[in-house]
Specification:
CATH superfamily: MFS general substrate transporter like domains
Distance between the termini: 65 Å
Largest sheet: none
Protein name: MFS transporter
Organism: Streptomyces genisteinicus
Order of helices and strands: HHHHHHHHHHHHHHHHHHH
CATH class: Mainly Alpha
Structural class: mainly alpha
GO molecular function, one term: transmembrane transporter activity
Strand content: under 5%
Shape: globular
Keywords: Membrane, Transmembrane, Transmembrane helix
Number of helices: 19
Number of strands: 0
């Protein structure tokens, strides 16, 4: 090796580690992240699998969208209570039985579809999955405890978690679509149920990084924190973007490639999230939502103007670039507003609002597809993004008026 080459190698060795390498230097972080990724992958599988199962067996995207919407709506009601129990008694004691109950609900849905049971049984079975623990929120609670005195590292951790969310939602639909089309319609749900329970068991086994349980009266409810409710409204509208895009894209593509097309949007968001984690200066929530609204015009223009699946796929990839910065900025604000000792509950409230929005978006997207066609369905996520932008702008104006 020549002299300049040796000097270059020494310089690289002396270079300080990057933010992500420093993030995982703490013992136990890699282990709980591995289990958490396994548990989160099914989150991108269950919705697609349910839509494919129900629509394929009962011949109605409207019914499929309504079933998933009803399950998400029930989850939005149950999840905060599950998170409150997690904060009070610890992640390991609550998450495992909660995941087991959710898996039983998924299995019940599989049986109902397989037996072509009456439609009402599908709603009941999918509602039983509402106890599924928010493993993403539990992971963020661990990072918040580990890096409570290091805002830069916490920003990187939140960006990584959002990128992990997008990675799971990128791979999950693809895996679900492939399994359901290549094997049988219930294969995606069965695989997701196995991964969920396995991942939760691995995640909760990492006790060294688990936040300690908080007593019941440790602090007030996160819902009462100033600014929290307007922020949850923003998450609600943002969730409608995700829910409607999923159902509309499944109907527009209508085939095994639908999962891959949906995965492209998550891929764009995942890449943007990782880049965002390296940038120390964050962008405001209103600016992020403005970018999301502008970019969500692309799928509508591609679908209505060309009717081409590749054009829609590329537009979703570009549109996804605004998702992760928006979610990272919003989740960071939730962490700041949440009282000490209620971190998991605060994170779950944000996810609950997202789920409620996803439920509304799924139902709205399904109805629009049924009555106006798949191309027109892309107007639903555009309107939802505009609503989220308006809510964020109104919340900022109210906050300024209150401090004036």
């Amino acid at each position: 090796m020549t002299g300049p080459a040796r000097e270059g190698l020494r310089a690289r060795r002396r270079r300080p580690p990057g933010p992500y390498r420093r993030l995982f230097a703490v013992p136990g972080t890699r282990a709980f992240t591995a289990g958490n990724l396994l548990a989160r992958l099914p989150m991108g599988m269950f919705g697609v699998s349910a839509v494919v199962m129900v629509a394929g067996t009962y011949g109605s995207y409207a019914l499929a969208g309504a079933v998933t919407a009803a399950g998400l709506a029930v989850t939005a009601l149950v999840a905060p209570w599950t998170a409150r129990l997690v904060d009070r008694y610890g992640q390991a004691r609550i998450a495992v039985p909660a995941a087991a109950l959710a898996v039983l609900g998924q299995l019940a849905l599989v049986v109902c579809v397989w037996r072509e049971a009456p439609a009402w049984t599908l709603f009941a079975a999918y509602a039983a999955t509402a106890t599924c623990p928010n493993t993403g929120g539990m992971a963020r609670a661990r990072w918040a405890r580990l890096y409570r005195d290091d805002p830069g590292a916490l920003h990187t951790a939140n960006s990584f978690e959002q990128a992990a969310d997008e990675l799971c939602f990128m791979l999950g639909p693809v895996l679900a679509a492939v399994l359901c089309s290549a094997l049988f319609p219930q294969a995606g749900t069965l695989t997701g149920a196995f991964l969920l329970l396995t991942g939760v068991l691995l995640f909760t086994a990492q006790r060294s990084t688990e936040p300690p349980p908080a007593p019941r009266a440790a602090s007030g409810s996160p819902l009462r924190a100033p600014g929290m409710r307007p922020l949850l409204t923003v998450f609600l509208a943002t969730g409608a973007v995700f829910g409607s895009v999923e159902v509309v894209t499944l109907a527009f593509v209508d085939g095994p490639a639908a999962g891959a097309v949906l995965g492209l949007m998550a891929a764009g968001s995942c890449a943007a999230g990782l880049v965002h984690g390296r940038v120390r200066r964050s962008v405001g929530l209103v600016a992020c939502l403005a970018a999301m609204t502008a970019l969500m015009t692309l799928p509508l223009l591609a679908a209505a103007g060309t009717g081409s699946v590749p054009a829609v796929a590329v537009s979703l990839l570009v549109a996804g670039a605004a998702t992760a910065p928006t979610m990272v900025t919003g989740m960071t604000r939730v962490q700041r507003l949440t009282p000490e000792g209620r971190t998991n509950e605060g994170m779950t409230l944000a996810v609950t609002a997202l789920l409620g929005g996803i439920a509304a978006g799924s139902a709205g997207g399904g109805w629009t597809v049924e009555h106006l066609g798949p191309a027109a369905g892309y107007a639903v996520p555009l309107c939802a993004a505009a609503l989220a932008l308006a809510a964020a702008a109104a919340g900022r104006s109210t906050a300024r008026a209150a401090t004036a």
